[in-house]
Amino acid sequence: MGFRHNNILFNNHFHKDWQRRVRVWFDQPGAKKSRRNARSAKAAALGMRPLQSMRPAVRGQTLKYNTKLREGRGFTIGELKAAGVPKKYARSVGIPVDHRRKNRSEEGMKLNVDRLKAYQERLIVLPRRSKKNKNQKPDLSSVQTTRDVATAFPIPAGTVSEAPRAITAEEKEFQAYRTLRIARATQRHEGARIARQAKREEEAANAKK
């Protein structure tokens, strides 16, 4: 900002009572302990319910991350239908639903359907409290339950890289660039080649007449 004419110079009072306007984080250790206690209390209140929701395995975006798998927002309608899980029922047992995501490959859909089926096999749904089963407690001593969904159903690794190996003589002789150029030229001139062949056949048929 420049100065014009014979006006008074700026004299902003920025040094007044700065101590009250400084943000400090002296409560960080206490806040950390409070969050940990809150998580423990929530886990105890949930009983046998999983601490996290079941998440699908999805591909990362862009060319840099599309070889890696990560947790997605929710399962698609097609995945739920293939696994035999109704949409409303899924939300009530810790399976989120994402109606916007679409399945682009059979492999990705099969992976998530298998995860849903494995989750259903270990899922235990207790009946609602009513007058009939008010005092009945189910026996869960011999049942395999899980609290940590991420540990019980981990996201598999994406593309597994190959181990280093020696280049074979056949691979050394192979000309990748030339092969690609020939294939590209063949595909580009395919229409003209078919037209020339049809013209030759037509001329040969006319000559016979």
Give the % helix.
40-55%
Overall shape: it is flat
> Whole-number radius of gyration?
33 Å
- Decide which structural class fits the backbone: mainly alpha
Low-confidence stretches: none
Mind summarizing the main beta sheet?
2 strands, antiparallel
- By DSSP, the count of extended strands is 2
Largest sheet, spatial ordering of strands = 1-2
Proportion of residues in β-strands: under 5%
Mean pLDDT: 87
> What kind of assembly state do the chains in view correspond to?
single chain
| SSE string, helices as H and strands as E | HEHEHHHHHHH
Helix count from the secondary structure assignment: 9
Q: Report the end-to-end length measured between terminal Cα atoms.
A: 93 Å
Protein name: Rpl13p
Region (Disordered): 187-209
InterPro entries: Ribosomal_eL13
GO molecular function: RNA binding; structural constituent of ribosome
Layout of helices and strands:
Blueprint: H1 28-46, E1 57-59, H2 62-65, E2 69-71, H3 77-83, H4 87-92, H5 106-121, H6 149-152, H7 169-173, H8 176-188, H9 190-208
Helix pairs in contact: 3-5
